[in-house]
Amino acid sequence: MSKTGLRRRKSLPLVSRLFLSHLLVMIVGVGSLLIISKVSSPRFFILHLQQLEGKGVIFRVARTSLLKGFQTAWNRGTFWSVIVGTTAAGGLSYWLSRRIVKPLTQIEDITQQFAAGKLDKRLPPSEIPEINQLASSFNQMAVSLEDVEQRRRDLVSDLTHELRTPLTVLRGYLEELATQRMDATPAMYQQLAKETRRLERLINDLQELSKAEAGYLPIKVEPLNVRPLLESLVQKFADQVLEEGPVLQLDCPEKLPQVLADSDRLEQVLVNLLGNAIRHTQTGAITVRVWVERDGRKGIISRLWIAVTDTGMGIAPEDLPHVFERFWRAEKSRNPHTGGTGIGLAISKRLVELQGGEIEVESQLGVGSTFRFYLPLA
């Protein structure tokens, strides 16, 4: 066994070391008191007798007896004072040592449970400021780790569910081809390619969402004028809409204040929102509207809002709280032709938050939906 291991095994517990340190301080203090008193007290007593003799009081005959009596009384008093003081100080030191070590013992017990997988364990508050700060930091770490673990479990569950459909389709076609119960046609190969693209898109979206949720997604925030970006996106999507489809329009002031945003990430958010609007809007209009919000008391521009409004199928009231959850899709939009993975809105929400904004949704079934978010001003 190494010397380090022997040294660790021989080391005393913290409570014993605290008690011994208090006891050592007490011994040094009492010893200093006894030595100084033993040396100086008789001299001061004799000096006091001499002062009294100078005033006419005669102690020459009884001086030796008085000095011996003083020393005897001093020794007895000192003895009992040391006994009582040592007992009281020792008991108090032991009690304080146990009180200091108790929260540390709790920390050790809870951290062991936490390491064993009980991620819901938390440290109780302590009266000692430093230990209370340690407990607070540990609890924050525990909440973060529990959230990461929950996201991991949800991801595995959701991913299993989402991968099952395309994999089942691929396996079915491949088994039919292998047994020659179905002829290999271009249409079949196109269907196989479509399912593989769906898997690829799902994996890419999952990777993007994981980076965004973990805070690893690079965000380069800088002053930005959003109007040119909006004009380009509206024109790009308008070229892709069929003649009988919805009309895309931009409602944006000519002059806008600059915002703090990442141009690429902002474009990604808008592409997700416009893509969803087009998929769920057969006829009518899709409007990208921009406006500024002013402080009510000062009249100063505080935020810039961007909204994508459509006249599509809308979302039921009971489904609205789940819109930004990953892999969530309303039943009416669960069809193989939408091409959505159910992750786009979750990614958009996280990207907006990473740029210092917040995203909201309003919708009415059969009337349409409005997704809006704000960005901080530069």
State the gist of this model:
This protein is α+β, with helices and mostly antiparallel strands and about 375 residues long. The chain contains 8 helices and 7 strands; from the N terminus they run H-H-H-H-H-E-H-E-E-H-E-E-H-E-E. A 5-stranded mixed beta sheet has the order 2-4-5-7-6.
Please, could you describe this protein's structure?
This protein has eight helices and seven strands. The chain has 378 residues and is α+β, with helices and mostly antiparallel strands. A five-stranded mixed sheet has the order 2-4-5-7-6. Strands 1-3 form a two-stranded antiparallel ribbon. A hairpin with a 6-residue loop joins strand 4 and strand 5 (301-310). Helix 6 runs parallel beside helix 7 (263-279). It is elongated and about 130 Å long. Residues 1-9 and 331-339 have low confidence and may be disordered.
Characteristics of this structure?
alpha+beta; two-stranded antiparallel sheet; 7 strands; 59% helix; 12% strand
